[in-house]
Amino acid sequence: MESKRSWAEPYKIKMVELLKMTTRQEREQAIEEAGFNTFLLKSDDVYIDLLTDSGTSAMSDRQWAAIMMGDEAYAGSKNFYALEDAVQKFYGYKNLVPTHQGRGAEHMLSQLLIKEGDYIPGNMYFTTTRLHQERAGGIFVDVIVDQAHRPQDDFPFKGNVDISKMEKLISDVGADKIPYISLEGNVNMAGGQPFSMANLKELYTLCRQHDILIMLDATRTAENAYFIQQREDGYSDMSVAEILLEICSMTDGCTMSAKKDGLVNIGGFFACNDTELYQKAQNFCVVFEGLHTYGGMAGRDMQALAVGIEESVQDNHQQARIGQVEYLGMQLIKADIPIVRPIGSHAIFLDAKQILPHIDQDDFPAQTLAAELYLESGIRAMERGNVSAGRDPLTGNNRRPELELVRLTIPRRVYTQAHMDVVVESVAEVYKRRQDIKGLTMVFEPEYLRFFQALFTRK
Ligand code: PM9
Fold first, then answer.
1. Which of 37, 54, 99, 120 should be mutated for ligand 1, with most atoms under 8 A from CB?
2. Residue ID of nearest Cα to ligand 1 atom 15
3. In the predicted model, is pLDDT for residue 6 greater than 90?
4. Nearest alpha carbon to residue 183 among 250, 266, 232, 115
5. pLDDT in tens, 11-22
């Protein structure tokens, strides 16, 4: 029977994890000690943890049963073959190399395909993806549609590649300087925004004309498939699983952080169709990840992922997952809180530039807002603005991105509707006193991916 509630969960709760409540005074101390960086808080001091949807999902009883089927043989574990079957069946790629998590696969792809001075177009940057491209000698070029940089623009496919930007890059630098385009499903930094199948088809034609590979960041592409089903003409009768396969059929391979769509706590993979690239990836794997039949994953985790992949492409799973995010977003919109529109897949993004217009971007409005939200109620969010964007490698200046956001990221199958209501109330409280909030000064800046470990003090 179909559910009468639009997004009611297709599961019930079998086990719970108890949470600690903290006082305002305890939170003051915790955030000071964390240098106003929510990554540096102890999770024990957090009530509702919306830092990330990465590795934080709840596994199903079937996945936990799979954990018990771990074959921890060093080589040729049967769990590898189960995972290979799942990737072939649901993503359609011929060849699989497991990695410890997504950035292991990004490292592999970047080192194998990028030469010094190459250009790597992408539908907006992702922090770890761009860093690996740059470390391999590549120059990242943003070719996402302009709408993606405008938080209030309601365009339904803000993850689309702007084909004219791609054509311009090809004519400016030459196709032989572009080994591949990095195409992300449900673009994280844009607010979890999907690309359309029509856009992918156009991109496919262009890339085939110029012999440019399309490498998919498949991390949240099952969620992208759900948006295509819901929003794009001609797809409403297709299942998420069918749409995902169609997406992958127009790409040459993928990197995957299995910690998101894949519903596991750790793991990732690189997959492709080309045999020569596969052999190189296997060989690279033994140097940096582990033997090519485990690549940094335990056998039991590969088995849990094989099951997680199958669960992730079920229509009712995606309906509940994205339905919950939409519920939170709609409540925030009703409370007049400026958020990125349309509501994306894995998170609600608060528009810190609009909420704290009196704080200059170099005083880190989004970092400040995330800290204030924690102080208010013990909710942990993540900065996605100036700190995450880092410095321009050529000028050394802060990049000052157009999007200065705080991400309220929803783990899959973890929190309830009542938790979402607490989040809305807490954001509304902070919003009420926004004029009194002052910015932050960065007092420690690590060389790479500074958002993870930077320290701040109050202005
Ligand atoms: N994403 C996230 O919270 C975790 C690390 S960054 C705070 O959103 C994409 C689109 C990601 C992603 C990680 C990775 C890297 C690649 N692509 O974290 O190495 O969102 O498994 O994956 C995080 P790993």
1. 54
2. 102
3. no
4. 250
5. 999 999 999 999
pTM beyond 0.85, yes or no:
yes
Span from the CA of 152 to the centroid of ligand 1 (angstroms):
24
Question: Which residues, at least 6 apart from 353, have a Cβ–Cβ distance to it below 8 Å?
Answer: 151, 361, 365, 404
Contact 370, 406 (CB under 8 A): yes
The secondary structure of residue 383, as a DSSP letter, is: E
Q: What is the pLDDT of residues 318-343, one digit of tens each?
A: 999 999 999 999 999 999 999 999 99
Contact between residue 285 and residue 109 where contact means Cβ atoms under 8 Å apart: no
Exposed (0-12), middle (13-18) or buried (19+): which is 393, by Cβ within 10 Å? exposed
pLDDT score, position 74: 98
Contact 232, 195 (CB under 8 A): no
**CA atoms of 272 and 215, how far apart (whole Å):** 9
- The closest-lying atom of ligand 1 relative to the alpha carbon of residue 451 is 7
Tokens of 406: 């705080």
Q: Which residues are catalytic?
A: 74, 126-127, 217, 260, 384, 451
Q: Give a three-class secondary structure readout of 398-423.
A: ECCCCCCEEEEECCCCCCCHHHHHHH
Q: What is the Cα–Cα distance from 292 to 271, expressed in whole angstroms?
A: 12
The sign of the CA dihedral 155, 156, 158, 163 is negative
Domains defined for the chain, CATH in brackets = 24-53+315-458 (3.90.1150.10), 61-312 (3.40.640.10)
